[in-house]
Amino acid sequence: MYNKILQGTNKVRIVFFAIADILLITLSVWLAFLLRFDGKIPVEHILNLQGLIISALFFTLPIFYFFKLYSFSWVYVSTQELISLFKATTLSFLFSGAALLIFRDFSQFSGFPRSTLFISYFLIFLFCGGVRFSKRVYLQIFQKGIKKEKARTLIVGAGDAGEQILRSILGSRYSPYLSVGFIDDEPTKQGIIIHGLKVLGKIKDIPQVIEGQGVEQMIIALPSEGSKTIKIAVEQGRRAGLKKIKIIPPITELINGEISLGTLREVQVEDLLGREPVSLDTKSIDNFIQDKTVLITGAAGSIGSELSRQIAKFKPTLLLLLDQDETGIFNIIEELEDKFPRLEISSEICDIQDEEKIERIFKRFLPNIVFHAAAYKHVPLMEKHPDEAVKNNIFGTKIVAETALKYNSENFIFVSTDKSVNPTSVMGATKRAGEMVCQTLNQKPFLKFGKGERTKFISVRFGNVLDSRGSVIPIFREQIKKGGPVEVTHPEMKRYFMTTSEACLLVMQAGAMGKGGEVFVLDMGEPVKILNLAKEMIRLSGFEPDKDMPIVFTGVRPGEKFFEEILTAEEGTMATKHQQIFMAKLSEIDEEKLNQRLENLREAVKKSNREEIVNILKQIVPFYKPNDAI
């Protein structure tokens, strides 16, 4: 019966606590009078008793509701609810006291013993707080009976995240974890007790702690740490023979920063790449996005969908998602509506090359900010279909950018790539041409209203995004699932990598910083050997590279380079106020010459003449050297 109450729905919980509060408030006032009059309430004070009960109920219940004391999670009740209860009880006490003073001439409040009000206040706080903490107390007492069914778990990280995870474990009778203690490198935390569990040592001590405590699995609760620390913790756990290691994702991946057992996931390769955590000026991003209409093209893709998730956190007036992939748009809208129910979201199924429809969309919604993430990005495939790469990545970009200029968009952020630097592929050359289009448009004033102002066109370059569609990680994952072999093009192949959430947050930061005309370059950290990445993924799957799972080399593909640059030698960088964002020094673009060559390119595309397309791209992008010319 008690468990059924504990597992009740939201409405049942509200009714349960409201009835409990009515009974407990009545009991508190009655006990206050009993205590005041040594166990026997004089007849002449019965009316006072009734008056105080009515007054306490009248003020306390609505105030409790206002402070959300009927809508909290009973399992995860914390000191925050205790503080809210204290504030609510104090406020209701003040209102009750004021009412007694105002209506002191009424018979119910005449000759009122003031001490009963203070005693009632204390007892209401005690009883109403007690009933709210009762489930946590109940679960922690009776959890002992099922400890044998739970896995002995070590928590790495004794900060806020670790404490929240432990609180979730203690508050859930059916969680699969039995916490045995913490690990933390902070010297001041050594030996301290958190919710009854001790900090047992530092990360270097993990193997000994695991052996000494009989640990069966580990939770890494370091969402704000760099992956270097996480990698060391994982390696120490592996040394001790642990197979089950879970992790709280980086803070950038958490919706509203909330941490619970539901946020835990398996360790992934992106957690181990040695990148430092992204630092953000959230105030500038908030000022940039809040109360604006934001359009994202390519919103169903890896970058576009993650941009949608991150932008939604900053409360735009309207989030407008555009893509030609109707299934992808449907999926991201379903996700966002679930996570951000108050956010206004609209979608458009549209090809960015459809100039008339793009015009109608801008005319209807008048977006303040445009994030242009729509692009064809698959390097070998675009080598086979250069006409499609040109139509989408150059002319599609030109259509969206010129329409943004025409309809007074404040900012246009072009999502570019490190493959645009000294490109050896058609894809890279078309993305550099897209940057050049944005550079030339940046100097133009508003075309429609002629206010003398101009749209700020900003390009942002970064490297490979982990786990994006068509990238190496999902390919490796599928090959490992099939039992191998894992195919790597060349043992010396290197790439810059960044998680999708990191890339999108820095794109937003760059957009907020931009004055117009810049090409921002994101700090990608150190390049990673694809061979090392493959080996790490094999280990994460529980195998040993070249022992349980073979690795084979397949040769460099058309358009690929061994190593991607972020800048040309001629460009160089300038620092910005953000330590992870740099600005490329760019030469002026001859707009007339660019437009003429783009017209020539348009004619070549109509004829699907690959050789002519490549030759004109060489004229537009001076450093473009197709792979077969290297």
Question: Summarize this, please?
Answer:
It is built from 20 helices and 22 strands. The protein is of the alpha/beta class and 630 residues long.
Topology readout:
Blueprint: H1 2-6, H2 10-36, H3 46-66, H4 79-102, H5 115-142, E1 151-156, H6 160-171, E2 177-183, E3 193-194, E4 197-198, H7 206-213, E5 217-220, H8 227-239, E6 244-247, E7 265-266, H9 282-289, E8 293-297, H10 302-312, E9 318-323, H11 326-339, E10 345-349, H12 355-365, E11 369-372, H13 379-384, H14 386-406, E12 411-415, H15 426-441, E13 456-461, E14 464-465, H16 472-481, E15 486-488, E16 494-495, E17 497-498, H17 500-513, E18 519-522, E19 528-529, H18 530-540, E20 551-553, E21 573-575, E22 581-584, H19 591-606, H20 610-620
Parallel strand pairs: 1-2, 1-5, 5-6, 8-9, 8-11, 9-10, 11-12, 12-13, 13-18, 14-17, 15-20
Antiparallel strand pairs: 3-4, 6-7, 16-19, 18-22, 21-22
Helix pairs in contact: 2-3, 2-5, 3-4, 4-5, 9-17, 10-17, 12-14, 14-15, 14-19, 15-20, 16-18, 19-20
